[in-house]
Amino acid sequence: MKSFNTFLATAALIGASAISLPALAQAAPAPMVEKTMDKPAAAGEMTEGEIRKVDKSTKKITIRHGEIKNLDMPGMTMLFQVRDPAMLDTVKAGDKVRFKAEQAATGLVVTEIQVAK
User: Fold this and answer.
1) Mind giving me the DSSP string for 61-76?
2) Is the pLDDT assigned to residue 76 strictly greater than 80?
């Protein structure tokens, strides 16, 4: 008798899951999530920051920055690549700057930088 009850319980579970599978197949697809990489920097929108380190040998720069709106990123200190290594000749550690950054396939890249006046 116990094995018959187990059989009925198993059959009920299998039947319930078979009924729910077609319902799942008809469910609406999940909405697409917008990727940050697809967001171009807004024209004229620059972020304020302070240069912490310039590393010409690796073509990278460390910046303590405020919120980067086009990347939906809070303020922090982080390492960036630079699009043009000549940018590194225009700044030094301690400089207050305004810059633009974007997400590239290789990571976050500074695309424009200006020493703040």
Assistant:
1) EEEEE--BGGGTB-SE
2) yes
